Amino acid sequence: MPPSQANLSTVKVLANIPFQVDRAVLRHQLRLKPGSHHLAELDRLVDQAEQIAKPKAMFRMVYVEDKGENWVQLDGRRLTSRILRINLEEAQRAFPFVATAGVELERWSKTLSDLLHRFWADVIQEVALETARRALHQDLVQRFHPGLLSEMHPGSLDDWPLSAQDDLFALLGDVEGNIGVSMTESKLMFPVKSVSGIAFPTQTHFTSCQLCPRENCRARQAPFDANLFEERYGLSG
Hints:
The protein starts with a helix and ends with a helix. It has a single domain (5-206), classed as NADH Oxidase (3-Layer(aba) Sandwich), CATH 3.40.109.40. By secondary structure, it is α+β, with helices and mostly antiparallel strands. The chain is globular. It has helices at 5-8, 23-29, 39-52, 82-87, 103-110, 115-144, 165-172, 175-179, 228-233; strands at 12-14, 56-59, 62-67, 71-74, 77-80, 93-100, 149-152, 182-183, 189-190, 194-201. Helix content is 37%, strand content 19%.
């Protein structure tokens, strides 16, 4: 069942997030050395991006209402995932969210014809997405004081597949109307530089990377722990 209109009034939308690129960090990330003839081009693109970028985020607090062996019920919706259920073992509330670099930067990046410029624009959008995620986290912490937070993201593990986006979007309400993020038929998000998930209070930090054996992943945040399935979640590796 969808959240009630009364509950949806608790959705927090962050639509006016300031965006300014740390150009020194960006140059280092792109491996541009002082004196490079590319610096002026990069500065021009950053100027454009800072003028049009509107990173956004939204989240809400929901209560953990019930739990089964491999599911958890949040605000009337049953989410099937053994790992999510165990991660929420001690939690009384959770925070579904979506953050995005914004449709404005997505559209701007498509106007660039130079392949190098498009690569730079992709990195700039990642910076905007991280800006939105930081703003969301800061607002959530200031508002609810949850303590240590961890996150799970649909599609990051087989146990909670990308199809779970339907549940997540339903818990948040009008995601596209509020922050411009829509879902394709395959449950991917547009703009591409968007992230969805559930944040939850925890005593032990968790990231899906701990359960993912994929090698050479540049988004990896923690090493793979081959024993964690068995030890914490009662699953075989």
